[in-house]
């Protein structure tokens, strides 16, 4: 309205001017110009002021973003150093940090949350060697100085801690060699050369190599090939004293294991987890809050069959064992593993009674005993005269073939190293491959038995279900196969030698026959992790060597199995929308 009147007034003066009437014209021009100038100046000041405010908001928003990044950095630091406060429900420590203020400045801070993802993949949560995926939400907060308006920015990051169990073979120093027809199912790490001495060698995982791949054209590669970068420090990653403290119950909230002060021979079959709240070894109760760590100041000799689960620290369900030696670990017979649910269904026991050295064969139906969820079939011998046995699974009367093209069977031999009257052997998921039982075919177990003298031998067959049970071996020095083990041997475990290598002792004359005469077959279902390589001893010259990778090991890891130090990987990163920021 003001401008309309002003314009009309100007027009009237223009008319009067044309009519020769000039009074007041100059004064009006000054007023108009001044008004317009004032309005323009006010508009410019308003624009400038808004630009200043926008610049401050942008600056504070940018500062809030970098505060959020600081929150992510501190979260990773807490995962590395404050791990005892990480629970299945998240981080329980203080998660807000106020930044010291500058003179005349106002508040600024960041906050964060750490939430474990997929609890099934969390191992030894809250411990030095926990692994898994963690979601970090970090928020940066910056306050405008005049209006006290809060500018917030948020970041979501997924951080993963990987494990040595991802490797089929890990050699920190020196070279690694594979021959023709080797099939490597997981990642490989070698600090020196990777030698492919035959063709083909097929790699299904990634390869990290320190130097070069010799005869590279002999390989078939499905994963990435990279250098080792700054490398992985095996000695730094494996803290032997930490395991000693775990076994002695000296670390708050992490339970108690078995502490052995002198060299010891361990039979896995003597671990009894039938009552998960009262685990035992050889009839003696294990410590309350048993954490699955068996530590020995000297050598540990091990053989046998392990199954079942137990209630560990803080009421958590534990499965498997980790054996740690401050010296050497020696395998004295088969290392076989079963499942968490034991003896789910059983046929009537079998009784054998034959003269010494005479084979006796019996077959028992498994229909109604096994189903698609069955992943272990075990048999337990209780006798003083048994010599050796073999169990073969028959499908419609013929030997069952697994997905690897092998007959589904297992055998057990009585040697001077493992001569107890009661022994257990098993066909487990490693033997079955990807094969499952169904209700459309007829299944049975064929037992071939040899005795060392006259007398009854009772054999109980059980089908088992549940999660796999795994065993980890961690030695400060060498990991070895005893020279008096049978020529046919299977090891369901992960082997780690922190400062040395692995080897098989003896020669063709020292190892007794397995079930089959003069048949050499060495099978390991699990990773081999060493400082300087190793060798299979006499099995390098005779028979078959099967280096297989158990896919269940990562998801169902042995308790507190070592992880590479400081190995936290950023899996994803995204800026949060305003509606997602709390």
Largest sheet data: 10 strands, parallel
Structural class: alpha/beta
The best one-word shape is elongated
| Beta-strand proportion | 35-45%
Query: How many domains, in number, for the residues?
Result: 4
The end-to-end span amounts to 48 Å
Total beta strand runs? 46
Mean pLDDT: 86
Q: Would you identify the regions where 5 or more consecutive residues have pLDDT less than 50?
A: none
The main sheet orders its strands as: 16-13-10-7-44-41-38-26-22-17
Number of helices: 6
Rounded Rg: 36 Å
The level of helicity is: 10-25%
Question: Could you characterize the architecture of this molecule?
Answer:
The protein has 582 residues and is α/β, with parallel strands linked by helices. The chain folds into four domains: 122 residues, no CATH class; 68 residues, no CATH class; 188 residues, no CATH class; 125 residues, Jelly Rolls, CATH 2.60.120. It has six helices and 46 strands. The strands form eleven sheets. A ten-stranded parallel sheet has the order 16-13-10-7-44-41-38-26-22-17, covered by helices on one side. The longest helix has 57 residues. The radius of gyration is 36 Å and the shape is elongated. The two termini are 48 Å apart.
What's the short story on this structure?
The protein is α/β, with parallel strands linked by helices and about 575 residues long. It is elongated.
Key phrases:
582 residues, ten-stranded parallel beta sheet, 16% helix
């Amino acid at each position: 309205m003001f401008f309309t009147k002003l314009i009309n007034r100007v027009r009237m003066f223009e008319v009067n001017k044309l009519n020769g009437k000039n009074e007041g014209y100059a004064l009006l021009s000054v007023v108009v110009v001044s008004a317009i100038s004032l309005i323009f100046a006010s508009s410019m000041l308003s624009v400038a002021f808004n630009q200043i405010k926008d610049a401050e908001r942008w600056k504070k928003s940018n500062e809030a973003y970098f505060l959020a990044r600081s929150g992510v950095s501190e979260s990773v630091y807490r995962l590395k150093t404050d791990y005892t406060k990480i629970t299945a429900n998240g981080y329980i420590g203080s998660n807000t940090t106020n930044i010291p203020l500058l003179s005349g400045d106002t508040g600024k801070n960041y906050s964060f949350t750490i939430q474990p993802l997929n609890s099934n993949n969390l191992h030894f949560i809250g411990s030095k060697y926990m692994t898994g995926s963690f979601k970090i939400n970090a928020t940066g907060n910056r306050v405008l100085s005049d209006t006290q308006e809060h500018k917030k920015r948020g970041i979501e990051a997924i951080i993963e801690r990987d494990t040595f169990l991802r490797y089929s073979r890990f050699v920190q120093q020196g070279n690694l060699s594979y021959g023709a027809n080797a099939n490597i199912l997981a990642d490989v790490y070698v600090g020196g050369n990777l030698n492919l001495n035959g063709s083909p060698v097929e790699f299904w995982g990634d390869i990290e190599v320190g130097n070069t791949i010799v005869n590279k054209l002999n390989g078939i590669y499905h994963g990435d090939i990279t250098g080792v970068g700054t490398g992985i420090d095996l000695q730094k990653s494996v803290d032997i004293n930490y395991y000693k403290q775990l076994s002695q119950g000296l670390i708050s909230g992490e339970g108690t294991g078995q502490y052995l002060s002198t060299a010891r021979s361990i039979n896995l079959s003597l671990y009894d987890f039938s009552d998960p709240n009262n685990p035992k070894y050889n009839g003696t109760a294990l410590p309350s809050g048993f954490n699955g760590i068996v530590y020995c100041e000297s050598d540990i000799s091990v053989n046998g069959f392990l199954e079942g689960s137990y209630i560990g620290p803080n009421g958590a369900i534990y499965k498997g064992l980790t054996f740690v030696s401050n010296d050497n670990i020696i395998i004295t017979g088969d290392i076989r593993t079963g499942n968490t649910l034991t003896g789910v269904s059983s046929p009537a026991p079998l009784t054998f009674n034959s003269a010494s050295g005479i084979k006796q064969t019996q077959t028992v139906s498994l229909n109604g005993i096994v189903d698609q969820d069955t992943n272990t079939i075990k048999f337990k011998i209780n006798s003083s005269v048994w010599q050796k046995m073999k169990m073969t699974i028959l499908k419609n009367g013929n030997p069952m073939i697994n997905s690897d093209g092998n007959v589904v069977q297992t055998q057990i031999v009585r040697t001077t190293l493992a001569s107890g009257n009661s022994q257990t052997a098993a066909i487990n998921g490693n033997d079955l491959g990807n094969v499952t039982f169904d209700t459309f075919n007829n299944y049975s177990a064929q037992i071939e038995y040899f005795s060392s003298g006259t007398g009854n031998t009772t054999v109980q067959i059980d089908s088992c279900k549940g999660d796999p049970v795994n065993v980890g071996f961690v030695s400060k020095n060498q990991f070895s196969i005893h020279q008096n083990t049978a020529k046919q041997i299977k090891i369901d475990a992960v082997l780690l030698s922190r400062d040395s290598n692995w080897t098989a002792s003896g020669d063709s004359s020292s190892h007794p026959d397995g079930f089959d005469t003069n048949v050499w077959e060495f099978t390991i279902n699990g990773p081999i992790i060493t400082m300087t390589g190793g060798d299979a001893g006499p099995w390098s010259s005779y028979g078959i060597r099967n280096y297989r990778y158990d896919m269940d090991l990562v998801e169902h890891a042995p308790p507190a199995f070592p992880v590479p130090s400081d190995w936290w990987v950023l899996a994803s990163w995204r800026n949060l929308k305003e509606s997602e920021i709390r």
